[in-house]
Every structure is written in C-alpha cells, then in structure tokens.
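Before the break, one more example. Copy the sequence into your notebook; we will annotate it together after we see the structure.
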Amino acid sequence: MQSYVHGYSEREAVRLRDQADTLAELLHHDSVFPPDSMVLEAGCGTGAQTVHLARLSPQAKFTAIDISPSSLTAARERVSDRGIANVELRCADVFDLPFATGTFDHIFICFLLEHLAAPVEALIHLSRVLKPRGTITVIEGDHGSAYFHPDSAAARRAIQCQVDLQAGAGGNALIGRELYPLLNRAGFQDVVVSPRMVYVDASRPKWVEGFTRNTFAAMIEGVRQPALAAGMMDDKVFDQGIRDLYRCAEPEGVFCYTFFKGFGVKHLPDRRLDPDNGSTR
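Here is what the structure looks like once it is written out:
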C-alpha cells in the first residue's frame, strides 16, 4: 500500500474514531452477517469500523487485517475495551493474503481502496479468499461530493490540496463514484451501489461536532504541513480555508458529503460441459 496520506498520529486515530462513531448508523445499519459466517475486514486500521461490525453481528466470526502494526495495536485496545470476543486481528497485506482460497463468506472494506494505486488488483486478490457466491461490501467517500454554506473558494482549494496529495501518494480521494465499475472490473456480479449522503446543519448537533468539525475539517487541517511544503497554497489562504470549513459548524453553517456503499457477489466457478462424456467440469 502507498503511504497513508493522513499519517498515524494519535490525533488521526481520534479523528477516525469520531468519524466511525458518527457515521455508524448511516453506513452500517445494513452491514449485518449471519451467525457463524466468516468475515474478513481488509484494512481495519485502528479498529474504528471493526467494533461496529462486531457489535451488529455478534455471532459472526471476524478476521480483521491491516498492514500497520501500530494501527493493529490501537485496534486490539479498542476491541478489548469494548469487550468484543468475535474478532481476530492479524497483520497482513491485501496483495499477499495469508489465507487459503475460499476461506471467507464475506469481505468487508471501508476506506481502504482510496489509498491504493491498484484497487482492482486488490479486489481480485481479496476475491481469491472468498467462497463462490460469497459477497463483498465496499464503502468509500468522494471528496468531490463536498459542498457547504457559507461557500468559500479558499476552503475548496484546501480540500483540493488533500485530493492532490492523496493522488501523489498513489491514492484516489474521488474513488467513491468509481465503485460500480471497479467491482465489475474485478469480476464481481450483481453489483449494486448506494449513495449515503451526510447532511449537517445546526439541528443535528451530534453531526456538527462528529462530522463537520471532528471528521472533515480536521482531516483537511491535518494536511496543512505537506500541502504548504509542496507549494500547493499560500499559508494564509490555506488557513483561511480551514477557518471557513470550521465556520460551517457554526449555527448558520451547512455541510454535505456523500459516501458510496457497494455490494457484489463472487461468480461461481466455470462449469462447462466436457465434450468427451457430457459431464460438467
């Protein structure tokens, strides 16, 4: 995986927890798996999404993997603090999975593909460890879907800095809109993608704090140093853009953003007729 553009600081870990907790109902109300099903969560990070998945399906068996040992340490603490017993955490790379073919009933991915230079290849590797007719769920955001009031050219430029930095690291902060073709290109069938729109105004104080302020504005503020170092923006204009994003969390502010949740099915093995004896093979 390319370098994680947001970094691995404690502040970023807190931001991820705030994001996951705020978005849990919107993103995961339909992320429920049958009892005894084997579920692989790829790119679990600090376990921010893991704990919500495990809580919704307490009788499913989760294996959560990530390439970062420090993130896995944080994930283990989070899982332990929540008293969750149906999750195994392992250090592994999605491009070199340590599992036998057809191990899992379901694969779950949230905010991973955006950081990969080869998302289709990653999906194909993950498909190998999925059982025939097994299912996959992928959730990704799309920074191009962000719009807000009061509008601000400086804020939009600051957001573009994050998009460009992620592209420079090999990722794609606009990947949400591409989930349907990506899943199809990876060979999944019956692909369905649904938009999950975040709308925030002062009547939703939990969302104002949890998403506008602590998730999105904090994320863009977090790329200040690399954006300025790369000469993408003047420091005064960037700082104005951040102030304008935080202004969207004030009583007259409004913020909108769209996540995309894709679902697909692994195709059955090709069972063509043997021309010699008429049997299938």
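Residues 10-266 form a domain with the Rossmann fold fold (CATH 3.40.50.150). The longest strand covers residues 188-200. Try to locate both features in your own notes.
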